[in-house]
Amino acid sequence: MNYTYLTYDERCQISILKKVGNTLTVIADLLGRNKSTISRELARNGTNLGYQPVEEQALVVERGAACANGPRVSMGTWKFVEENLAQH
Q: How far is CA 61 from CA 2, 26, 39, 56, 64, in A?
C-alpha cells in the first residue's frame, strides 16, 4: 500500500471546497483521495476559525522535523559490531 501525504495545493483545495459547502465525499472524489483522509485532515487540523491550509502546512513541516528518525549508526560502529560478531 502506497501512502502519500497531502500536498499544500490539496490542503488549499480542501479549504476552498469545504468553504463553499461541498461534502467530504465530493471533496474526496475531486481530489482522488479517500473520504477518511479528508475527514481525518479536517478533524486533526481544523480550528474554531475553520480549516487553515497555510497554518497547517507550517505544522506539517514542524511535525516532520520533530519526528525525524533517531540518530544513525556510524560506519565505525557497524565495523566494530561486525568484527565482534565474527569472533563469536
A: 20, 27, 20, 9, 5
In whole angstroms, what is the distance from residue 85 CA to residue 60 CA? 41
Distance CA 27, CA 15 (A): 10
Grid-cell match 500500500, residue found? 1
Three-class SS string for the chain? Answer: CCCCCCCHHHHHHHHHHHHCCCCHHHHHHHHCCCHHHHHHHHHHHEECCEECHHHHHHHHHHHHHHCCCCCCCCHHHHHHHHHHHHHC
Write out pLDDT tens, residues 45-68. Answer: 776 667 778 777 887 777 776 666
